[in-house]
Design goal:
The chain is 34% helix and 17% strand. The chain has 135 residues and is of the alpha+beta class. The chain has one domain: Roll (Ubiquitin-like (UB roll)), CATH 3.10.20. A four-stranded mixed beta sheet has the order 2-1-4-3.
Length: 135
């Protein structure tokens, strides 16, 4: 992969495409798949331990719970069962895992029509394990 392509991959989705393009994309997706929700999943910018996903766009059924979606992401990332994975909805909220994606979409979708979810490990929210002393 060329260095430019790699840097584009690291850039957040909103910065890669203009608002009009993103809105057109959502309209196209929603017309083709009316029973699915367009979701963008990206790694937290300061995350260093979790790998990048091979894709950022997902089509998710309304009735799928956030917990089920988390399991799907854990499988895609190929996480060890002992590794933690947190989801931030709209870069600000840790939603209830039993909430349906339809509920979350209706509450937190962006103005462009996508639902943005950021994934991170525990270390992002507190001190790193190396900095923390023994218990």
């Amino acid at each position: 992969m060329a260095p430019f392509e790699k840097s584009m991959e690291m850039m957040p989705f909103k910065q890669r495409k203009c608002l009009a393009t993103r809105k057109d994309e959502v309209c196209s997706i929603r017309s083709k798949f009316p029973n699915k929700l367009p979701v963008i999943v990206e790694r937290y910018m300061r995350e260093r331990t979790l790998p990048l996903l091979d894709k950022t766009k997902f089509l998710v059924p309304f009735e799928l719970t956030l917990g089920q979606f988390l399991c799907l992401l854990r499988t895609k990332i190929a996480l060890d069962p002992s590794q933690t994975l947190f989801l931030l909805v709209a870069e600000r909220s840790m939603s209830c895992m039993s909430s349906s994606m339809g509920d979350i979409y209706s509450r937190f979708r962006d103005t462009d029509g996508f639902l943005y979810i950021t994934y991170a490990s525990q270390e992002v929210f507190g001190a790193s394990q190396l900095a923390a002393g023994p218990c």
